[in-house]
Known about the structure:
Layout: H1 2-19, H2 24-31, H3 35-43, H4 50-59, H5 71-83, H6 89-100, H7 103-122
Helix pairs in contact: 1-3, 1-5, 2-3
Amino acid sequence: MAADIDLHLGKRLRRRRRLLGLTQQQVALRIGVRFQQIQKYECGANRVSAARLWELAEALESPVSYFYEGLTEALERREGAGGEVFSRKETLDLIQAYYQLGERPRRRLLDLAKSLHSDEVAA
């Protein structure tokens, strides 16, 4: 879940920066870091501390709450989109087995799964 929050904050940071027409370098200069750090924040690779978030909000002329807007909905969408499915051992086993197959068997298995889903929806 923390990674989901980091991604959301990064997206909001990028959106606000672009809205103001600023480059990553310009934002970095305003808060005293290198532009690579802004890149890492925007893609969610690095977490934004509370103090750094405050500095970013000041630099981007927005309230800190801006970065959290829509977070609850984004997390709910992620959960609803099968977030817990990928944490199951069964799912991981299936994915590993799938990628151990050659290209042709993988294609056939994918086609089979799609046809089974279509049959289920039609019924």
